[in-house]
Amino acid sequence: MQIMLSPTVALTETELLEIRNQFPVLTRLVHGKPLVYLDNGATTQKPQCVIDSIRDYYSRYNANIHRGVHQLSQEASVAYEAVRGIVQTFIGAASPETIVFTKGTTDGVNLVAQSYLRARLSAGDEVLITGMEHHSNIVPWQQVCEATGAVLRVVPVLDDGSLDEAAFQQLLADKTKFVAFTHVSNSLGTINRAKELIALAHAKHIPVLLDGAQAVPHICVNVRELDADFYVFSGHKIYGPTGIGVLYAKPEFMAQMSPYQGGGGIIKTVTFEKTTYVDGPLKFEAGTPNIEGTIALGRAIQLMEEIGVERIAEHEHDLLTYATAQLTSIAGLRIIGTSAHKAAVISFVVEGIHPFDLGTILDQQGVAVRTGHHCTQPLMARFGVQGTVRASFAVYNTKQEIDVLIQAIHKAIKMLS
């Protein structure tokens, strides 16, 4: 079902209701309360059209791809490959051949670390990341550094949760062989000035990977305008299913990469003496892929485009502004991450209350938030906290739901203080 929306920027109440009606889970009761789902940074809920696309695949043309001449295989192959073009347009890539399907952001980072970077590092070389990275954009680089004797360098984070860009520039050295950083922080919501940071690295001929897991759901992304060499994101954070993600790689970099997983689907010829590989993205998609997940990812992207990514961003920014004002009025509550440039993510702590306890009380009121370190333990240490409560917004959230969140926080403070 296609959502019919007006050309205005702001979503009207009628349009928002129509969007919400596409998400079956939003009608649920949790502990007898209407569900208020504010854990979108972890994963978004799925619209009926995405659910239907999975059912349709299994009901009508379930078959393996790229291997069969029969009708079902041909239909499945066409549907699968069509999604490369959908992703290409969505992120402004030059060609579908720049799009590799992965299991998700983590898989994409590991693919680049092992297939591109590892063979190019020597003892004493440096890899530069930032202090606001998700563990998925820390651990793979640590692993290749440990294996090669290279050194991991970290750009510090300022008190407001923005990146120390002066330090970034200073840390770009002759020994720096690679840079990887998040486009949008999953814990702080900070939107990094990716284009400018990439330009600084490229001035020294250093390749850059951008972790776009939290950017693609919230802001318009154009990889060519950013000039990113590698860009990774996950389908489940943009209303698609879990287990599917995207690695974008510039053609010149993809051509230099060797597959780090072997198997069917990636080969030209196999003998017991030697194997040769196909060119392009299929070289990195060994085995039977997540066919239904890929097709459903394409439908999720189409839904975002039907609504309009700019309109989604505007709606979420409105929610962020409203929620920030409401939260800062609560005595003892402190927002972690107050950069001027933020996506729709708010992390906070309440004095004297453990985030887990607060999250538990919120859940009893039907409010789903994330509590803990959000896979950013070094960042939590930077701000002197063990963890935070994180509310993260999506296109289907409303100001009324934020009001429920605020009321639930007040109730929790009364109970736990």
Descriptive report:
With 417 residues, this protein is an alpha/beta fold. Helix 3 packs across helix 10 and helix 11 runs parallel beside helix 14 (399-416). Strand 5, helix 5 and strand 6 (151-155) form a beta-alpha-beta unit. The chain is 38% helix and 16% strand. The relative contact order is 0.16. The protein has a seven-stranded mixed sheet, with helices on both faces. A four-stranded antiparallel sheet has the order 13-14-17-16, covered by helices on one side. The protein has a two-stranded antiparallel sheet with strand order 1-2. The protein has helices at residues 13-20, 48-60, 71-91, 105-117, 139-148, 165-171, 194-202, 223-226, 251-254, 291-307, 309-328, 355-364, 377-382, 399-416, and strands at residues 29-30, 33-34, 36-37, 99-102, 126-130, 151-155, 176-182, 208-211, 230-234, 245-249, 267-270, 275-277, 333-336, 345-350, 367-368, 370-372, 388-392.
Strand residues, percent: 15-25%
Helical stretch tally: 14
Question: Sheet with the most strands?
Answer: 7 strands, mixed
Total tally of structural domains: 2
pLDDT < 50 runs, ≥5 residues: 1-7
Give average pLDDT, whole number. 95
CA-CA gap between termini: 48 Å
Which structural class should the secondary elements be placed in? alpha/beta
CATH class categorisation of the largest domain:
Alpha Beta
The strands making up the biggest β-sheet line up spatially as 4-10-9-8-7-5-6
Helical percentage: 25-40%
- Global shape: globular
What is the radius of gyration computed over CA atoms, rounded to a whole number of angstroms? 22 Å
Within CATH, the superfamily of the largest domain carries the name Type I PLP-dependent aspartate aminotransferase-like (Major domain)
CATH architectural name of the largest domain: 3-Layer(aba) Sandwich
Number of strands: 17
